[in-house]
Amino acid sequence: MKNLPNKIGLALIILVNIIGAIGFRYDIFLPLFKLLTPYNLLLTLVICLFYVPFKKFILPFIYVFTIGYVLEIVGVETKLLFGDYDYNGSVLGTQLFNVPLIIGVNWFILTIGTRACANWLTKSTYLQIVYAAILMVGLDILIEPIAIQYKFWNWAQHDAPKQNYLMWFIASIVMQAIITKKSSLIPYSLGFTIVASQLIFFVSLHV
Q1: Do residues 194 and 136 make contact, with C-beta atoms less than 8 angstroms apart?
Q2: Distance between alpha carbon 157 and the CA centroid of its chain, in Å?
Q3: What confidence tens digit (pLDDT) does each residue in 50-62 have?
Q4: Pairing state between β 85-86 and 99-100
Q5: pLDDT tens digit string along 152-207?
Q6: Do residues 80 and 105 make contact, with C-beta atoms less than 8 angstroms apart?
Q7: Which of 155, 132, 130, 156 shows the shortest CA–CA distance to 145?
Q8: What are phi and psi of 41, to 5 degrees?
Q9: Between 160 and which of 47, 104, 151, 164 could a Cys-Cys bridge form, CB atoms 3.0 to 4.6 Å apart?
Q10: pTM (predicted TM-score)
């Protein structure tokens, strides 16, 4: 029972994504659950910050958030990085420079979640970075069709181009390198929960 408080936060992440997946499948609930999407990500971030040393992850969060957000701004404005896409009509909340602020949060959540899983797979720092980046790209491949369907973002050609996944891999490598010195402080249970919750939500919507 002494680990119960620690398990509650992880269970909440899973539970919220299960409820979200159910809500997205029913037209009567869909508008509400679309609006709740950025708050789900914020809740996940808050829970994450209870499981890692807060002070030691302030700078990694700022760096990953900023890099991810700036890349998105450049990508949206120039179409040169990820391809021709935009967040017009997006349900992801408040935007700055035509990119939802919550996108930077999402980059951070995926970065620490995949890294904890990669650290469990190997002790090689190089391989940890590569495996985590591959896992991030894999999640994006899973996410893209659902994100397009529910207007999280829009692609000019209606599907994400290969260029998007290449840029995701490059960005992920950079972000994983940034958190390397602190990555051992990310509990595997947290990383597994983040990745599992993503799989639960997006796989269920693919079915």
Answers
A1: no
A2: 23
A3: 999 989 999 999 9
A4: unpaired
A5: 999 998 889 999 999 999 999 999 999 999 999 999 999 999 999 999 999 999 87
A6: no
A7: 155
A8: -65, -40
A9: 164
A10: 0.95
